[in-house]
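Cross-posting from the modeling subforum.

Setting up a comparison between two proteins and wanted a second pair of eyes on the formatting. Protein 1 (sequence, then structure tokens):
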Amino acid sequence: MLPKELLAKIRRIQIHTSHVANDVFSGHYHSTFKGQGMEFEEVREYMPGDDVRSIDWNVTARQGKPFIKRFREERELTVMLLVDVSASQAFGTNEQLKRELVAEVGATLAFSATTNNDKVGLILFSDQIEAHVKPAKGTRHVLRVILELLTHEPAGQGTNIAAALEHLNRVVRRRAVVFIISDFEDADYERQLRIAKRRHNVIPVSIRDPREMELPNVRFVELVDNETGQRIMVDTSSAAFREAYRRQAAQRDEARQKMFQRLDAKAIELMTGKSFVEPLTRFFRAVERKG
């Protein structure tokens, strides 16, 4: 049996994220992510205004009057959440840990999928594959996904995005919409990301914290790398150190963004302590405009 506090937390996330999915993203999601193709529905008599390119010439010849073929979109999709649960996700300085933001975003995307009768699956990874929930439909399944996002205790500390993408390509054979939710504190995964993009619609969701980008002047601070355990004492009263820290963070972000641009992977940038609704809405609208 789950503890009452955990049940209450799941319930809060369910109420909030299902509301966002239903009221804010429902139309955007449906318009943005198309089905796998068009499925034949029926042949009917031609009516003024119908597209002449839809005329079924064989039936037309047999009947002696024009008939058209009608198709409907094969709507069902598979949505995969590829979620980073490495030790760096336990960081947060803006009233929210990165892993808490990850859980909210993942839950919202899962509810958006199930609202549109799509399947949703989950792969958790660190420097190894931590868990794999096969795609399925329904609210009960989404609640299982949320439970995994909230309670999974990773065995690994580091981040291996390349291995996670290789696993995805092995186990998900049918084309899927794949959200990679991570802080992308890793290197050497461009090749695997390129391969995954050929097979799937891959969308990077970058999770950041303001203190990863810039440090305040609070004098001496001990910085800890959660993934390696390395500790270093720094003097944040040094303007030169703060500027070097900011510049290095900006360079890492710029390199990642250039890689995404090379691969034509439109990324969603999210920050702890800030609403994720507007960035996701902007993403959906941009993809809709692009067509």
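Protein 2 (same layout):
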Amino acid sequence: MSGEFIKLYTVNAPPENAYFLRNGNVYFYASNMDKYSVKGNNLIIGSTEIILTHMLSMQTERMETAVSTGESSIKKISVKKFLEGMKSFPFLMNTSIVLAKQVLLTNRIINKNIDQLEGVEKIIRDLAITYYKAVNAVNMEYDKRKLPWLNDILKKHLTTLTFKRGEAFCKSQQSITVETSHHLSDSMVEYPRGSIICSEGTSGEEMYILQAGSIDVEIKGNKVATIDQPGTVFGEMALLLNETRTATLRANNNTVITVIQKKMLKQICEKDGDLLKNVAVSLARRHYFNLIKINTVNKALIERDLNNTSCEGENKPGQIDKIRIDLGKLKNEISEAAYKKNADFLDPIVDLIK
């Protein structure tokens, strides 16, 4: 009935079903303060936690509450049927489009909330990101070399609040990476240095996979990032959502890219069954970490308001000092290990910590 709402699932509940929205509207409460909605016809809703739990072995409870309007037509999809559906192109495409929409809308919430943060909160965020990147770099070296003394350093830092805070900010921004099969060799295009791959404001009819070289990402004529990891997928959001490009991409050197046209996507995915599945899984991860980031930023906003109205508790300068102390300890441990173990491969990590 009109005016009524039906709760599909609540935060912290187990992901027991996905949902098929024949028509109508679903509201997602990313936090007590933030909500967004997805509306339309024949949409697959509630896939993030199922993908993480059953396809990535990341046991994940519901990260947000979902409510449909009373006039919406919606039915449950069992986990078994959902996983079977992920083997078909139409189902995968549907799931990817909804996930891309959720990533886009939660990005907007994050940007809105970050804009409310003042200088000290931004310092805390930046310090946490530095801490995470340094610990993660040590972790990558340990995975490569399996040196026990590297693991001793990791044990002290992988579970800290600062690491978790930085992880949420970084992982929600991670690009999708895939291995390109030989079936896509005919779709490779070489771009000479300085040439434009796609322009800001144009329609997104292609997605791309970087094979070699590097790409500058420009917004309003300003370089904001570089894409240089082979296998990185980009342009997928505009393609999935029929959105215009949000940035200009320019070849930084002679660059080889696999160009996947939207009209050819089904044909390509029939040859390379993992391509769209990897896109969907990566979008689910980004949505998951976006929700963590929303709550992290909200906590900072709440703490700021509490500090403005009460003299109790730890003040922001104190939190900054604590994170800087943690960073200093981390830097000293890595520097000492690099010196004692003659491990010059750790020098770039030391340089990362300013």
